[in-house]
Amino acid sequence: MLRFLLVKLAQLVPTFIGVTIVAFAFIRLLPGDPILLMAGERGISAERYAQLQSQFGFDRPLIVQYWDFLSGLFRGDLGNSLVTHSPVIHEFMSRFPATMELSIFALAFAVIIGLPAGVIAAIRRGKTLDHTIVGISLTGYSMPIFWWGLLLIMLFSGTLGWTPVSGRMSFIYFIQPVTGFMTIDSLIAGDWGAFLSALHHLILPAIVLGTIPLAVIARQTRSSMLEVLGEDYVRTARAKGLSSYRVIMVHTLRNALISVITVIGLQVGLLLAGAILTETIFSWPGIGKWMIDAISRRDYPSVQGGLVLIAFIVMIVNLLVDVAYGVVNPRIRH
Amino acid sequence: MALLDIEGLSVRFQTSSGLFTAVEDVDIRVDRGEVWSIVGESGSGKSVSMLATMGLLPWTAQVTANRLEFDGQDLQRLSSRQRRRIVGGEMSMIFQEPMTSLNPCFTVGTQIDEMIKQHKGGSRKERHERALELLAQVGIPDPARRIKAYPHQLSGGMSQRVMIAMAISCDPRLLIADEPTTALDVTIQAQILELLLKLQEETGMALILITHDMGVVAETAKHVIVQYAGRQVEKQEVKSLFANPRHPYTEALLSALPERAGDKDRLPTIPGVVPGQHDRPTGCLFNPRCQYATDHCHEVEPVAAPDDPARTLCHYPLGEADAAGATPDDAPNPPPRPESTDHRSEVRP
């Protein structure tokens, strides 16, 4: 198992190097100049421009700048934000728990609803319930996140007034951050009101962010279940005289999960991408919103650092998925 | 009372192009401790008829029978819960592809244990002991180690032994073996057949062996049913079947045996294939491939003569041509019997 992990980790190195190149190049390929943007409408004198360029190191050759970025990365130094002048890693870490909390709730929503929906659709193949589930999940998959988010806000926050429109918690509560997860921190503080308020704020963005993963998981579960239901060993399980519940939940689902888990892992990258839109709609103070701000200001260190960190997290999650894959699939483990 | 009593079993599948009859009017009566064999080419409905008996066909299958009884219990009337008590416990089955018939996610021990737990119960320790005992009984070396193995770590022969161990774990009174050796090496085939017969003798259970191999039939069974295109065409004791096949199909199958081909360079074959859903002939289903077929065979579906113990589904059963009155009244011209020009008559015992 240790060897399996080490091999997988070693395989991540080239991917990681590639990510740093893409992250570094991406923001520089965008038109616009961070110094000009900082100067704003008043403009800037040529001398001051040159001075700032050399201060930030933008006058050096790109390859030198890249090397600077890469070597800083290995020292754990992502540089300072051009806008706030504080270290990028701090900026990132202060916002990341908000995104993570949102993503976890979104993924939980997607799995808790999507998995059973897929199983039910597979069992009732060709029946009305199956068509309904497949139809709904196709709709969910095709819906633009921002539009879906706005619709939900209009209904639940506007017309019905059930949920708040934005933010992570009501202003009447103040919770000392420990983990950065509002739900956990409020429980640590023993403040039930704050906990409920945190949940209240989470529901809508989690549903919006979780909709596409839910659709993907439901569809994958359904097709994977249908495939496994036709396997010889499922017939063997029925020939053993087991109840249909056991045949489906133990013998079929266990095997169907192998491909579903891969898909769930892939959704994590999608969640972080989707978080950018969802956080913007709900003014959620996470890395998605932060990245958007950094890009619009051409904050080079924040964008490249943020991209590398997000990519790193996605890679680690995929590694964990590979491990989980080995746990459910003995053919990989042995 | 017979252990397994099936009369007029038919299986139809709902397909996109209409209803397809895979099995029609099959009768089997198996008594306690008997060894039966069902033989026929692929597509003869051998497996389907037994899967129908076990209740293992997909929901697209419509199973009907005049009688479908196990030990006096009407399988068609039982609730699914009652039926599950018989399936696996009293009547169990092993399959053609041992490598894919075991669940890849669970160890051998877990899969045997599950079966015992379902039908016999007992403490975890007792069940474990029983599983070890079963693995030893089916000839798996080092059961204590193998019980922890996953199916992908086993060879085909080993997997089939595990399947057999599982199938006999609850002391069934009937074991149905659906081409248990087809996917295995020739040397392993003999071992598995030997094992099945040994277990049958030891436990006294009845055994139904589905096969397309006449050689297997000769070595194992006492009674034989020959099936063709979903119809039962002949039913005899194995000795008389080999000595006096009644149906031309049986005869053709027998003449394809290497032992019977004599010194011929090439083994005789039966030209053509079993008709499927879309190429069913009129009249006798075997007529396109039958060397004795007449116009009568092309037009009229044969029925078994009521006084024929072999229930031969043929207008002109073999070995009856000379017997007076054996030919149907509406068949004026009995077909000419090929004489020495045909190799089959030479090798017929």
UniProtKB/TrEMBL annotation, chain B:
The keyword rRNA-binding does not apply. The keyword Membrane applies. Residues 314-349 are annotated as: Disordered. Its EC number is 7.4.2.9. InterPro entries: AAA+_ATPase, ABC_Ni/Peptide_Import, ABC_transporter-like_ATP-bd, ABC_transporter-like_CS, Oligopep_ABC_C, P-loop_NTPase. Gene3D superfamilies: P-loop containing nucleotide triphosphate hydrolases (3.40.50.300). Residues 321-330 have a biased composition (Low complexity). It catalyses: a dipeptide(out) + ATP + H2O = a dipeptide(in) + ADP + phosphate + H(+). Its main location: membrane. It comes from Salinicola rhizosphaerae. One of its GO terms (molecular function) is ATP binding. Belongs to the ABC transporter superfamily. Residues 339-349 have a biased composition (Basic and acidic residues). SMART domains: AAA. This is ABC-type dipeptide transporter. It holds the Pfam family oligo_HPY. It is an enzyme of class 7 (translocase). Residues 4-254 form the ABC transporter domain. It is found in: Cell inner membrane. Keywords: ATP-binding, Cell membrane, Membrane, Nucleotide-binding, Transport. It is a peripheral membrane protein. PANTHER family: DIPEPTIDE TRANSPORT ATP-BINDING PROTEIN DPPD, OLIGOPEPTIDE TRANSPORT ATP-BINDING PROTEIN APPD.
